[in-house]
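HUMAN: Quick job: go over this next protein and say how the chain folds.
***
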Amino acid sequence: MERGNAVKQFIRKYGLNLALTCLVILLAGYAGYLRVTLKGDERIVGTFNTIEGPNNAEGEYLVFQQNDIYCVYRQGEKISEEGVYQKIEEYITLNWDGEQRCLVQDKITGKLYDLSGKEPKTFNKISDIPTYIGVLGEIPPAG
């Protein structure tokens, strides 16, 4: 019976602290899980294309590298635009040759929207790896 009393005393003395510590650890773990799950698309590095599906070779490619360099190209052509990007929350600013434009990323789908031109463009992520397919000429060094 003494052992049962010792357990009861331990629970009375430390139970609340132990329960709160476990709760804090669980909440921190859950917050980390949500950050990775819900904001996983904040990792912009990779390759996007304006055409979804198997015929995306005809679309315009947008590539983001880890060294804050981005490129725009079409297969079988030279890179048409190369510059630096900055991502702040769901907004991506592209800067090249004194020009600037802004893209918006849908936090749920991860799609990018370029509303700066006459025709709005939607870019779908096709790879988490910066990929250059059929580019003529030089490609930027990997970062």
